[in-house]
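INFO batch 0412 | record 1 of 1 | parsing
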Amino acid sequence: MREPKRPVNRIASQAVTRRDVLGAAASLAGGTALASQAAISAAAASSDNLPPHIPDWQTKPGGEVMSPPYGAPSQFEASVVRRERSGGSPYPTKQAAVSLTPLQDLHGVITPNGLHYERHHAGVPTIDPQEHRLIIHGMVERPMIFTMDDIVRFPSVSRIHFLECSGNTQNWGKPAPELTVQDTHGLLSCCEWTGTWLKTILGEIGVKPEAKWMLAEGADAAAMTRSIPIEKVFDDAIVAYAQNGERLRPEQGYPVRLLLPGYEGNASVKWLRRLKFGDAPWQTREETSKYSWIMPDGTIRQFNFIMEAKSVITFPSGGRKLDAQGFHEISGLAWSGRGKIARVEVSTDGGASWADAALQEPVLSKCLTRFRLPWRWSGAPALLSSRATDESGSVQPTREALLKERDARSYYHYNAIQSWSVAASGVVANAG
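INFO prediction complete | emitting tokens
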């Protein structure tokens, strides 16, 4: 069989050959560098578990099946966990706080349930699903109250979508070099969500024509409430009760949540208990004092729901170190609330030149897309960046371009190009 043609890498004449790619098979765990033969020999001499010896774990039976009954990662992956941003939590209590997804340690596009980021305003409630109810009222023909049994009886739907906090990525000011991609972009995850279309449930209710907005309220102590445009409600809103094949985790809204693909995470209200229809937005705390933009002229812009085209390189990224020159695969994630990712470009010279990265299939709408680009590091300092374009034509802006459109005090919806600096020592740092 003839070998298919490979895409041309046009970055700074650093072409990667087939031999480079095949040589990557000798990479150390984590893919951070090519291991030298001398290093392999030294390691073999110091351990009886390395070739040509038979490893210890091959000489005796392993652990019992179903111990523990709910599976857990290997003990050697104990560092792959959610955590707060480096430097400590900016929140006064553990009830109003966040935990960040370790994007640098993940593969593909699906986030395991136990690593999905968290954002809470009043802690995680413990809700008995047998006593939980979903109330739908307001400008409707037939106000109704649904049990969880009622909800799961509706025809189900499963969709893979990203969820991103609108406060994700705070590079409005001078970048902090020590921050990792978990710090800068960790309020981002992607899962398969299962539930029922909200419009299917509303078919039993009968929404009145004069209703233009829907109020969604959660059952947490903050009574999280957001006003949602009626167009989104009847487009792709999901009443979700499962995540990646199992029921929602408590921190993700158990027993039921609203899922609004492509919208800022705060609008996908967790622990959903009430939907009210009306002819105007309710001007809640979350859309007045919070989740609004400050514009350059000092005005305030509300209801900025859609998460715009964005991408980030996850390897190599801040906190890593390249231990050897030669072949490395640059890899990262791209996403857009407007639909599918159409293109991702990567630069290794601070934007002087760009090359198209390969997009890993499947490329889905309002979903994370994994991109990859082969790269040969010469040992010289480098500046790595990625730039996403979505199917609507929206292109991820530079920080300078974003600041022409938004005041630096906007806080929310930062989607500018992210860069990582690679020093001659191989140390990778946040370059904003």
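INFO post-check: The chain has a mean pLDDT of 90.
INFO record closed
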